[in-house]
Design goal:
Elements: H1 12-15, E1 21-25, H2 26-29, H3 54-61, E2 67-72, H4 81-96, E3 103-106, H5 111-116, H6 119-133, E4 137-142, H7 144-149, H8 153-160, E5 167-172, H9 183-196, H10 201-205, E6 223-231, H11 237-249, E7 253-258, E8 272-276, H12 280-294, E9 298-299, H13 307-320, H14 324-342, H15 346-349, E10 353-358, H16 360-373, E11 376-382, H17 390-399, E12 405-409, H18 413-423, E13 427-430, H19 436-440, E14 444-447, H20 457-473, H21 476-484, H22 491-495
Parallel strand pairs: 2-3, 2-4, 4-5, 6-7, 6-8, 8-9, 10-11, 10-13, 11-12, 13-14
Antiparallel strand pairs: 1-12
Helix pairs in contact: 3-9, 6-8, 9-12, 13-14, 14-20, 16-17
This protein binds iron/sulfur cluster (SF4).
Residues 52, 54, 73-74, 77, 143-144, 175-176 line the site of iron/sulfur cluster (SF4).
């Protein structure tokens, strides 16, 4: 039985044995020294706030055109949509020249619903959303409350589907089920697969856990030069265009999937000649599914951030189509141009130290790019760890000038503050909402991801270098912040080992 036959995708703690708590070093995790098997993922004796899987799930679902997102949960769940809507508007504008808001509704479950059940409310909300917006699809996204009180969103969808025009996509995002928010990608892909790519869809087959019966669409024509370029929202349009430019240089056609893809056309993904991941952390679940059910082979190895990684990514694609020589010529040309353009920044970057924080693959690939630009990496915080990143740790271990800490942490800014106080890097790259700790310590910061900026491929390497040069030339804003603000941690914490609160499996604090 395949995962797709289950009602919902398994959590990554079980499927991948992924880990969120580990304090190690690049030589531990990479190829230089002993391999860490991360046996200390006993979580933490103290933990700060994190995010639930709704955030990445909604970052994907909100972009789908002609789709209504219907949250079935408490009113506060999914409020991240307020900030994500800027990306939906901007993303629509740069793709189609039209600014459009995402449509986001909530059943706003209250105390009475918790006691009496919320299924009736959900039924009414689906019918109303169908009549009012007439969308192609409605994503019915369940948060914690229905998971706790036992609302069966799959059965509601099954009963209601014949009565509404919109295709109903049940998406399981009960936040309490997993601490690894990357499970969200699997949850959304799972629903897309079950409802849009299988002929029986959600109407027939959701009555029982593990009940078989889905039938993949078959007989659709194979598109021999089409490549699925996977983007779960970790690339903006400018990065999509850079990779499209490189792939079309090899004479390939590009199907960007799934963000901003119309649900009615998603079946094209099953016809492609190849699927190419842009971040292995995001895509393994769906690419395995596409290969199993539709015979679409896939590449899941490199993230095309950085000079070396962009070349490796492109070579793998070219090898699949037997175009190695063409790819070599393209890479040589791109690298020559890029190296010449980077020359002006190298004196400024040489020897400067940097700390990188992000989702695992992005953090590691960006660290490698920063090394290529002349920085010295002195610390990395990855939001989780799984098997796919081992090759990136090996690359960084091979190029490291000295050992440095690796913090596997689902955010946990207190560990980051402790590390930054010790390491005192010249520069910190992290997500927009995760740069505050470094900024308040007076360290120059830059966003490691922003859908309006370039990061990927050769253009991304140049644009990032240009932005970093500007940042480093004038870090006075963050210096002033440090002079006028303080973080809430005591000296006792700064003096303690940074990984003091990471527990061993036996539960003892190290
Ligand atoms: S789904 Fe659960 S964890 Fe996520 S925001 Fe709602 S209540 Fe919080």
């Amino acid at each position: 039985m395949s995962y797709i036959d289950l009602k919902s995708a398994p959590k990554r703690e079980e499927r991948l044995k992924a880990c969120i708590a580990h304090g190690g070093s690049i030589c531990d995790l990479g190829g230089k020294g002993k391999k860490s098997c991360l046996v200390d993922d006993g979580e933490r004796g103290f933990t700060q706030g994190s995010i639930c899987l709704l955030l990445p799930a909604l970052a994907m679902l909100n972009t789908l055109p002609d789709n209504v997102v219907l949250m079935h949960s408490a009113i506060g769940c999914g409020t991240c949509t307020h900030s994500q809507n800027a990306n939906v508007r901007f993303g629509g504008n740069v793709r189609w020249g039209a600014v459009k808001d995402g449509i986001w509704l909530s059943t706003a479950l209250n105390e009475t619903d918790v006691i009496g059940g919320g299924e009736e409310k959900l039924e009414q909300a689906i019918i109303e959303a169908d009549e009012r917006y007439k969308p192609f699809s409605i994503s019915v996204v369940s948060g914690c409350v229905p998971g706790i009180i036992g609302d069966d969103i799959d059965n509601v969808v099954k009963q209601l589907q014949p009565r509404v025009k919109a295709k109903l996509l049940p998406v399981h995002c009960e936040g309490f089920k997993t601490k690894i928010w990357a499970t969200a990608y699997d949850a959304v892909y799972h629903s897309i697969g079950r409802t849009l790519l299988e002929s029986n869809g959600a109407q027939e087959t959701v009555t029982g856990e593990g009940e078989p019966g889905l039938t993949p669409y078959q007989g659709l024509e194979r598109l021999p030069r089409t490549v699925n370029l996977m983007n779960v929202s970790s690339m903006g349009r400018v990065d999509e265009l850079e990779l499209t430019r490189l792939l079309t240089s090899l004479g390939l056609e590009v199907n960007v999937f799934p963000v901003f893809a119309h649900p009615a056309g998603m079946v094209t993904a099953t016809q492609a000649a190849l699927s190419v991941s842009t971040c292995p952390t995001h895509d393994d679940y769906f690419l395995t599914y596409l290969e199993e059910r539709f015979g679409v082979p896939y590449l899941l190895k490199h993230m095309p951030i950085g000079i070396e990684n962009s070349g490796l990514w492109l070579r793998d694609v070219a090898r699949h189509f037997g175009q190695e020589a063409q790819a070599e010529a393209l890479i040589r040309h791109e690298e020559e141009q890029l190296q010449a353009a980077l020359a002006e920044f190298r004196p400024l970057f040489a020897g400067k130290t940097v700390f990188v924080s992000a989702g695992e693959f992005r953090a590691l690939a960006t660290a490698r790019l920063l090394e290529e630009l002349g920085f010295r990496v002195t610390g990395i915080r990855s939001f989780h760890h799984d098997e796919f990143a081992q090759g990136e740790y090996d690359k960084l271990a091979a190029s490291a000038q000295e050992d440095y800490p690796i913090d596997i942490a689902n955010v946990q800014p207190f560990e980051e503050a402790n590390l930054l106080k010790r390491i005192k890097p010249d520069l910190f790259l992290g997500h927009a909402n995760g740069n505050a700790t470094a900024a308040k310590l007076g360290i120059a910061t830059h966003v490691i991801y922003n859908t309006g900026l370039a990061y990927i491929g050769y253009r991304g390497a140049y644009d990032l270098a240009r932005r970093l040069a500007r940042q480093l030339k004038n870090p006075s804003y963050n210096r002033r912040l440090a002079e006028n603000l303080r973080l809430p941690y005591s000296d006792t914490w700064y003096e303690a080992p940074p990984f003091s609160y990471i527990n061993s499996r036996g539960g003892a604090t190290q």
